[in-house]
Amino acid sequence: MEGEFWLGLKKIHELTYSKKYELVILMDDWEGYRAVARYSRFSVAGPEENYTLKSVGNYSGTAGDSLSFQVGMKFSTLDVDNDTHEDGACAVMYQGAWWYAVCHQSNLNGAYMRGTVPDFAIMMCWKSFKGYYYGLKTSRMMIRAIK
């Protein structure tokens, strides 16, 4: 599969609530380095819970854990503010829909920006890999059923 593709929260919920799934995230920087974040038990709640990130399980990999912070958070979009930030909508401030708290340690739906940028965390970023001032070249979230 090439290009941008989002499976959709409804489908992700249906899959991750019917069986146990792991999540693997691949991230590439602009210098050719790839980092991996693997989570042992990924699940997303349904629409009645605003697609809350229910579980990620245990972390392993080379990217560092920048997703566990968001467990328990509802999915926020530009027009639906489900975060816990009191002074604004994280999805608007950080230019993309995601599981925001106050606000994030990862944002794989942020603006597409190349490498080091002056703006704080508005781009596709993963804090524990390249920090808040670095726009990733690519990210890929993949789920796989586990036994």
From TrEMBL:
SUPFAM superfamilies: Fibrinogen C-terminal domain-like. Keywords: Disulfide bond. PROSITE patterns: FIBRINOGEN_C_1 (PS00514), FIBRINOGEN_C_2 (PS51406). GO terms for cellular component: extracellular space. Residues 1-147 form the Fibrinogen C-terminal domain. Pfam families: Fibrinogen_C. This is Fibrinogen C domain-containing protein 1. It comes from Culex pipiens.
